[in-house]
Amino acid sequence: MKKLTYLICLFFSMATTLYASTDEEKGYAVQSEVERRDTGFGDSINDSLMILRNAQGAESKREFTYKTLEIKGSGDKELGVFHRPADVKGTAILTFSHGLKPDDQWLYLPELKRVKRISSVNKSGPFMGSEFAYEDIASWELEKYTYKYLRDEAVDGNDSFVIENTPAYEHSGYVRQVEWIDKTIYQPRKIEFYDRKNTLLKTLTFHDYNQYLGQYWRAGRLEMVNHQNGKSTTLLRNNYRFRVGLSDNDFSENSLKNVQ
């Protein structure tokens, strides 16, 4: 069965590039297949831990729960609620992702008892002191980028397509991204982020993939390294639960103050 699955994936991998004539068409075809394979999960919850490291290697940690609601015909809704340490407990981030339209994001700060809307021009700022930007934590949507196939290349023994993603939305902190997409599971293995001067800013790598519901792959560990300031962030995700019955009511701006 594993061999049959591998052959089927290999066939789709070859077909994806075979029937596209230009590098732009190939890039779009690969990313369209990524989107197709990850559609239909409904909703999910996971427990997450961020480990922040400064340039000297000193660490701090953030524990939080992350909820996702898939929205047909639009971007996902996502809610992260922080539990530990005490100085961030109750902090919550709510994201409504879109295509070319700017993502809507709100941050609840319990010490101020207020909800702060994050401006679309500030999405390149650090999320909770980490090396992930606010735009990094919004769900990926096909319309957000234009694409170009660059080459085939293996990452840690995983054959991958290398695709250049150019943001099509305004106010991105990146001029482009270079992404390695696994040919078997059609999920990212590595992404390089280039700043507005087209200099390599960060590299994100994905590890410890697990499959859920017989179809959907999620990485258990993400490593973000900032090459310009020497800082890094590890994101650990576990205890995934799918189709738990989340609804729009669980992602309301007005309910941000009451989430736990």
Q: Describe it for me?
A:
The protein is mainly β. 14% of the residues lie in helices and 44% in strands. The protein is built from three helices and 13 strands. It has a 13-stranded antiparallel beta sheet with strand order 6-5-4-3-2-1-13-12-11-10-9-8-7, covered by helices on one side. A hairpin with a 5-residue loop joins strand 1 and strand 2 (59-69). Helix 1 packs antiparallel against helix 2 (23-37). The protein starts with a helix and ends in an 18-residue tail after the last strand. The model has no long low-confidence stretch (mean pLDDT 91).
Comma- or semicolon-separated keywords:
13 strands, single chain, 44% strand, 13-stranded antiparallel beta sheet, 260 residues, mainly beta
Shape: globular
- N- and C-termini, Cα separation: 43 Å
Which sheet architecture does the biggest sheet show? 13 strands, antiparallel
Structural class: mainly beta
Lateral strand order in the biggest sheet: 6-5-4-3-2-1-13-12-11-10-9-8-7
Rg from C-alpha positions?
Answer: 18 Å
Contiguous runs where pLDDT drops below 50 for at least 5 residues:
none
Number of helices: 3
Hey, roughly how much beta strand do the residues contain?
35-45%
Order of helices and strands: HHEEEEEEHEEEEEEE
**How many beta-strand runs?**
13
Helicity level: 10-25%
Mean pLDDT metric = 91
SSE topology sketch:
Blueprint: H1 2-18, H2 23-37, E1 43-53, E2 59-69, E3 77-84, E4 92-96, E5 104-109, E6 114-117, H3 134-137, E7 145-155, E8 158-167, E9 176-182, E10 188-194, E11 200-212, E12 216-226, E13 232-242
Antiparallel strand pairs: 1-2, 1-13, 2-3, 3-4, 4-5, 5-6, 7-8, 8-9, 9-10, 10-11, 11-12, 12-13
Helix pairs in contact: 1-2
